[in-house]
Amino acid sequence: MHRKNTTLGEFIIENQTSFQYSSGELSKLINAIRLAAKVVNHEVNKAGLVDIIGAAGDTNIQGEDQQKLDVLANEKFIQTLINREIVCGIASEEEDDFISINSSDNQHQNKYIVLIDPLDGSSNIDVNVSVGTIFSIYRRVTPIGTPVALEDFLQPGRAQIAAGYIVYGTSTMLVYTTGDGVNGFTLNPALGTFYLSHPNMEFPETGKIYSVNEGNYVHFPQGVKDYIKYCQKEEGDRPYTSRYIGSLVSDFHRNMIKGGIYLYPKSSVAAEGKLRLLYECNPMAFIAEQAKGKASNGFGAIMDIKPTELHQRVPFFCGSKKMVEKAEEFMQATK
Ligand SMILES: O=P(O)(O)OC[C@H]1O[C@](O)(COP(=O)(O)O)[C@@H](O)[C@@H]1O
Ligand SMILES: [Mg+2]
Ligand SMILES: [Mg+2]
Fold this sequence. Notes:
GO molecular function, one term: fructose 1,6-bisphosphate 1-phosphatase activity
Cofactor: Mg(2+)
Shape: globular
Largest sheet: 8 strands, mixed
CATH class of the largest domain: Alpha Beta
CATH architecture of the largest domain: 2-Layer Sandwich
Number of helices: 8
CATH superfamily of the largest domain: Fructose-1,6-Bisphosphatase, subunit A, domain 1
GO cellular component, one term: cytosol
CATH topology of the largest domain: Fructose-1,6-Bisphosphatase, Chain A, domain 1
Keywords: Carbohydrate metabolism, Cytoplasm, Hydrolase, Magnesium, Metal-binding
Bound molecules: 1,6-di-O-phosphono-beta-D-fructofuranose, magnesium ion
Radius of gyration: 19 Å
Subcellular location: Cytoplasm
Number of domains: 2
Number of strands: 15
């Protein structure tokens, strides 16, 4: 049982055995993310005061208008990870292609791949609603001593060695897994220290909250429409409550604590849905499964999907196990 109020630094050292590779390297990786998270948190908290809200003027490879905070968060995470000298490649929602990073001896000795969604929930930045950051970590598959390659990034989610998110909400929390359960740390802003506040986080097996953008209802597949009607029907412990923040990290976090399901299905206007497999769905799926929840594309586990592109999208059903299974039933029934 983890000791509450352990600092994140202490926790990494005390739990090094759960990490299959050298703990020192994990410390460096998580510490890099902790550092960048604090910098971004500082910017997010004063978003209304300084010229950090609004569009940056460019679009990313997905055709989305980059927000100034998307760009800032992207720079901070990338720079902090590069400085740690163990990351050989980074892919980001805000970068068209992956970034190859050589070790200082020019011998390509670095071993880790990091994929990030630097700022999740961008549409909420300007309106003071909680946003997040998502990260996914792999060990490279190409030989050490050679430059990193696309295949290092296109690994199935099952190969992740760590994943997590930061939620910049009423408090700032870092939640992560290395494959040995999920733990949440809350930032004490006065001390700038993350403390273990939510040890061994787990999704309740079922819940009463469903999170989906119902504004897209008419475009949804029949299975999704039927599942939403099921959630709204007056029967048994239903109707469920509809809650949709519009920030994946925040909707996921609430549902993990209270019990619930988040859906971003495919639709007639989005053939594969909206969310990106590599730096949104895979890391959230790793956390969900480690927290006894479930993550599916409506028909099978997200983490079994073999990626083919850096920015590919997938339909996403994620949350309490029984609720995702019920949604899959409706999808199967109308396949
Ligand atoms: O506005 P929509 O279509 O409901 O989409 C909201 C979803 O899109 C996202 O904002 C996509 O993430 P980004 O903000 O990182 O692009 C999710 O966080 C959120 O759940
Ligand atoms: Mg996102
Ligand atoms: Mg984003």
